Amino acid sequence: MIGLPWLEAAGRQLRDQYRQQRLPHGLLIVGGSGLGADRLIQWLEGVLLCQHPDRAPCGQCHSCNLRLAGNHGDLLHLQPEGKGQQIKVGAVRELVSFSQGKAQYGQNQVVLVQQAERLNLAAANALLKVLEEPPAGTYMLLQSADPARLLPTIRSRLQWFRCPAPPVAEGQSWLEGQGVEQAAAELALALADHQPCNALMLATEDFMSRRQRCLELLRGQIERPSPNLEVLTGLLEQEPAQVLSIWRPWLADAARLAQAGTSVPLRNTDQADALQSLVGRYPTAALWLRLYDAVEQLRIQVEADNNLNWQLLLEQFWLSIPREIRRTA
């Protein structure tokens, strides 16, 4: 099966729909890799292309071997051209041409559009025409962790299938089964917003060390505001998205503490004492919300533009922290 216990029932449901000829030819799979959406999709592709439908995906037939080797003529993947990039209309024209052909191996044709929310307007409109009259024998799979960004007309043409999230206890049990210690599993799962596959990537000594350094620097700038930019050298060597993904939930925790007090649950459970100390010193929730909003705006810019000047943006944010503190005082 899929290899992720919280997705096994979902996989069986999709396979049963296919065997009963009830699987829609246009399917929007909602979820990201953190929940294992990529694993579910790979498995479903196997179901749709396997030459032994009664035990698909068998993993042994010629079609399965081609798929597993990444060389299946009846399978087409579309995705953004690069980090922060869009899916352009030329790629969708390739999809249209592909879908008008016939299956080479006697089963179906499968098209997967990954990160479908990144379709630009021209590409989305071109895809819409295909979805309005899906070719027989072709299954159109769209994956998105942010379906609200899709055109409403595309959303309405597809049947939605949401990747289920596991209960916390199941996610933690799975992480421990991957060799993660209990305390580390609890923390990683909280940091990953209870998405186990992402949590597994966070539960490494290397990431936790980098996280600790990022938080120490931010906490230091808030405790002892300084115009010194030399301390940012280490941050400039890290992936911008990762730095922001560390700061964002930490600042959100601080804002929640300022608004609701110590009874509020935190994602950064290991930072409770440090957060409570800082919020005790700066109890105004507006400060923490403004800092959170600034980091969120940075995240949006980083996601949208692969060529931005990360050093300049980081320095501007760093120097804004003392101003925001003075504004609150």
Provide structural commentary.
Helix 8 packs across helix 9. The protein folds into 2 domains: 158 residues, P-loop containing nucleotide triphosphate hydrolases (Rossmann fold, 3-Layer(aba) Sandwich), CATH 3.40.50; 125 residues, Zinc Finger, Delta Prime, domain 3 (Up-down Bundle). It is elongated. Helix 5 links the parallel strand 3 and strand 4. A 5-stranded parallel β-sheet has the order 2-3-4-1-5, sandwiched between helices. Helices cover 55% and strands 8% of the residues. It has 329 residues and is an alpha/beta fold. The protein has 15 helices and 5 strands.
Which features does this protein show?
329 residues; alpha/beta; Rossmann fold; Zinc Finger, Delta Prime, domain 3; 2 domains; five-stranded parallel beta sheet; 15 helices; 8% strand; elongated; DNA_pol_III_delta_C; EC 2.7.7.7
Q: Would you identify the CATH H-level superfamily of the largest domain?
A: P-loop containing nucleotide triphosphate hydrolases
- In terms of per-residue confidence, which ranges show pLDDT below 50 for 5 or more consecutive residues? none
**First-to-last CA distance:** 58 Å
Large-scale geometry? elongated
**Helical stretch tally:** 15
State the CATH topology of the largest domain.
Rossmann fold
Number of domains: 2
* Helix-residue proportion: 55-70%
Strand content: 5-15%
Q: What's the count of strands?
A: 5
Q: Supply the CATH architecture of the largest domain.
A: 3-Layer(aba) Sandwich
Largest sheet: 5 strands, parallel
For the biggest β-sheet, the strand order reads 2-3-4-1-5
Radius of gyration from CA coordinates = 23 Å
Overall pLDDT confidence: 93
- The ordered string of helix (H) and strand (E) elements is HEHHEHEHEHEHHHHHHHHH
Can you tell me the CATH class of the largest domain? Alpha Beta
How does the helix and strand content classify structurally? alpha/beta
EC number: 2.7.7.7
Catalytic activity: DNA(n) + a 2'-deoxyribonucleoside 5'-triphosphate = DNA(n+1) + diphosphate
Enzyme class: transferase
Protein name: DNA polymerase III subunit delta'
